[in-house]
Design goal:
- The protein is of the alpha/beta class.
- Helices cover 44% and strands 17% of the residues.
- Among the domains are: 139 residues, 3-Layer(aba) Sandwich (Rossmann fold); 154 residues, Rossmann fold, CATH 3.40.50.
- A 7-stranded mixed beta sheet has the order 9-8-7-6-10-11-12, with helices on both faces.
- Strand 11, helix 10 and strand 12 form a beta-alpha-beta unit.
- The longest helix has 26 residues.
- It is globular, with a radius of gyration of 20 Å.
Length: 426
């Protein structure tokens, strides 16, 4: 249902995502020599909300679901971030994702802060009616804390435009007026933006193009592997193959993956997955595991699932020259160090996957103006944003002699720190 594939490792086997965020903040604060007053604010969420959501199930019984909303920092503007429906959701994961969204909006120079939401549930076990009641119930619990000028949710893991439509409608009902701008990622005919469905992948492709230029890589001769063949992973493979001529050597999902050294047809593979539930057993390809994908001899590796799949245990085995992080937090700090030492260019998540929130921002602008752009205009605006952000990060990397993730943090956090000083927060 959602736009991303589930991660392979169980959540309890992973490092705490928010601990990783704070480690990254610590490193950035030292590099920028931030005053303690600023540092203490940026390493902690501004506001957290935990709610209980009673839902009447189809069997007539009431089941109570737990939900979260974390608004991390709003110094640059209203907070913005997706809502996840996932059985293993945790408040620390939501905190981490809200922080990354904060840096992402700052890095792309969007007038927005960062937020994230989630509900602990397995949407695959819910009927359509139960899913709608849960979606509306979540909004009923948090609606006083969100709004077009306060906090704007969007789809994320296992949520989609239909769920956003229900949430927008519930908020409008409670507010007593139509409020299309309260939610982004909506269906086109109720205020959605052209290009939003592929925005995360397309933004990632624009960053890959710039990175390939700086490293002298010919994309027409490049091979690519995608871990997590959901909406974002598929569209990245499709765009890389059909527009730039990349060879798609391997893809995986939660059940496993496939490899063909001569290349795969990304559309045919996705159709196979739609029919069978997985990419495995695709004709004319060898089945591989997710672990094996990271060891393949490819030029570009694209982790497009959930957090912490590249660790100190497998970073030394990666052969790719570029890692494009479509997922949030797929690489641990220890792995980052290993990859940097090996001269592998890691395009960090909150740069590489910022196309989604950027086009969501475009959707907000179009909603406010009641004027909708053509597809070509959306894509060109996105391309300019992503290219500018990449080169800002590259310049910071060269200035501070750090990897691209640390450089992206310095650019994003410096802008937030400057805004806090200007507004008199410290």
């Amino acid at each position: 249902m959602g736009s991303h594939e589930p991660a392979q490792p169980a959540l309890q086997d992973l490092e705490n995502s928010f601990d990783i965020v704070q480690q990254q903040c610590d490193s950035c604060a030292l590099l920028l020599e931030l005053p303690e007053s600023i540092y203490e604010i940026i390493r902690n969420p501004m506001r957290e909300l935990q709610v209980s959501i009673p839902v009447k199930m189809d069997n007539g019984k009431i089941k109570v679901f737990k939900g979260f909303r974390v608004q991390y920092n709003d110094v640059l503007g209203p907070t913005k971030g997706g809502i996840r429906f996932h059985p293993d959701e945790t408040i620390d994961t939501i905190r981490a994702l809200a922080a990354w969204m904060t840096w992402k909006c700052s890095l792309l120079e969007l007038p927005l802060g960062g937020a994230k939401g989630g509900v602990i549930c397995n949407p695959r076990e819910l009927s359509q009616g139960e899913l709608e009641r849960l979606s509306r119930g979540y909004v009923e619990r948090i609606w006083n804390f969100i709004g077009p000028d306060r906090d704007i949710p969007a789809p994320d893991v296992y949520t989609n435009p239909q769920i956003m439509a229900w949430m927008m409608d519930e908020y409008s009902r409670l507010a007593g007026k139509n409020q299309f701008g309260v939610i982004t990622g909506k269906p086109l005919y109720i205020g959605g933006s052209i290009g939003r469905n592929t925005a995360t992948a397309r933004g990632g492709i624009y960053v890959i193009v710039e990175a390939a230029k700086t490293s002298g890589m010919d994309l027409q001769k490049a091979s690519l592997a995608v871990q997590g063949y959901g909406n974002a992973g598929f569209h990245l493979a499709y765009l890389a193959h059909d527009i730039f001529g990349c060879k798609i050597a391997a893809v995986t999902d939660q059940r496993g993956g496939i490899y063909n050294k001569n290349g795969l047809d990304p559309t045919a593979v996705f159709e196979h997955k739609q029919k069978t539930g997985s990419v495995i057993d695709y004709p004319a390809a060898d089945n591989i595991t997710n672990s094996e994908l990271f060891c393949l001899d490819v030029d570009i590796l694209c982790p497009s699932a959930l957090e912490n799949v590249i660790t100190k245990n497998n970073a030394g085995l990666i052969k790719a020259k570029i890692i494009a992080e479509l997922a949030n937090g797929p690489t641990t700090p220890e792995a980052d160090e290993i990859l940097f030492d090996r001269n592998i260019q890691v395009l960090p998540d909150f740069l590489c996957n910022a196309g989604g929130v950027t086009v969501s921002y475009f959707e907000m602008v179009q909603n406010f103006n009641m004027l909708y752009w053509e597809e070509a205009e959306v894509f060109e605006r996105l391309r300019k944003k992503m290219a500018y952000a990449y080169h800002s990060v590259l310049n910071a990397s060269e200035k501070y002699h750090v990897n691209l993730r640390q450089a992206a943090y310095t650019v994003a956090v410096q802008r937030i720190a400057d805004a806090m000083i200007m507004r008199g927060w410290v």
